[in-house]
Specification:
Elements lengths: L14 H35 L2 H4 L6 H6 L3 H6 L3 H34 L3 H5 L2 E5 L7 H27 L3 H19 L10 H6 L1 E5 L5 H22 L1 H50 L28
Antiparallel strand pairs: 1-2
């Protein structure tokens, strides 16, 4: 992304910072769950005290009513089953409020501030891949996936357990564990994006607001890094091209040396031929001195015949 004055600069995020930010947000969810649990137990206590026969029973309290699945209430009074359904509804509403609250927290923080409280404490920011803030639809998708993987399926499992569907609750717990790790493990990949990030097209990174001089410096560093990566990637090809160029230069030098030697030989031959031609021309000129005339070969005379010996 091209940088301008005061533009956010996305940097790589270490895994432990991402994990600590998630832990802070999860602690907020645990605090919300504790608050809802306190309110739910208060509502159950109000329901119990509204039934005189249960209010006077020894040892009957909110926790006993919650863990009895209606048996204690049925034994105590004929309206116990109806009271148990009211308690079950209160607990399910509490888990629903927990999931809904966590979703609204994720959605509003990422849509309005671009980060959750945990991300803000760790200096992180969630944005689109081009560095801009998430749109509302992207924030809603990210919050929905994160809420489902972190709390939603666990809340459903707890609601099933309270209603007495142990088998379905156990299955839902297993699905919740798988969904949690499917969302968390992709953070360990080189891209560092969770399942919620991939589903919404979001990226979590560090964000700094830099002045103009620092932005220019960052741009220069980024350009140098790009050039260095390109040079390193093309280094083998550059070495091969340099070797081919060196061989071509050596061949060209050897060809030039051979041509120069041939030219020198031809020039020397021409000079020698010119000198011989000049000497021959001087020899053919009239009135040349006698010393310059080459000696003519003398014809050889035949030897006189020897006298025949006299006859005896």
């Amino acid at each position: 992304m091209p940088l301008g004055t005061g533009a956010p600069v996305q940097r790589a995020v270490s895994r432990w910072r991402r994990g600590l930010a998630w832990l802070v947000d999860f602690c907020l969810a645990v605090g919300l769950a504790a608050l809802l649990a306190s309110l739910t137990f208060h509502r159950i206590s109000v329901l119990v005290t509204d039934v005189p026969s249960l209010a006077g029973a020894v040892g009957t309290g909110s926790w006993q009513v919650l863990s009895s699945h209606g048996h204690t209430l049925t034994a105590a009074t004929g309206s116990g089953l109806e009271l148990w359904h009211d308690v079950e509804r209160d607990v399910q509403e509490a888990f629903l409020a927990l999931a809904l609250g966590f979703f609204l927290y994720q959605f509003l923080m990422t849509a309005l501030a671009g980060r959750t409280l945990g991300m803000a404490l760790l200096g992180l920011r969630v944005s689109r891949r081009d560095g801009e803030r998430l749109r509302r639809g992207q924030s809603a998708r990210r919050a929905a996936v994160a809420t489902t993987a972190d709390l939603g399926l666990y809340s459903i499992a707890c609601c099933l357990l309270v209603s007495g569907d142990f088998t379905f609750s156990l299955v839902c717990w297993g699905v919740a564990v798988v969904a949690f790790w499917c969302n968390a493990l992709p953070v360990l990949t080189p891209s560092g994006r969770s399942l919620a990030d991939r589903f919404s097209g979001a990226v979590v990174g560090s964000s700094l607001r830099l002045p103009a001089a620092a932005v220019q410096h960052v741009q220069a560093v980024q350009a140098a890094a790009v050039g260095t990566r390109a040079a390193v990637a093309n280094a083998p090809q550059a070495v091969a091209e340099a070797e081919a160029t060196r061989r071509a230069l050596e061949l060209k030098r050897a060809t030039a040396d051979g041509g120069r030697r041939a030219w020198d030989g031809m020039r020397q031959g021409v000079e020698a031929g010119a000198q011989r031609f000049a000497v021959q021309e001087r020899l053919r000129r009239p009135g040349r001195p006698s010393w310059a005339v080459p000696p003519q070969p003398q014809p050889r005379r035949a030897a006189p015949p020897s006298a025949a010996p006299a006859p005896a």
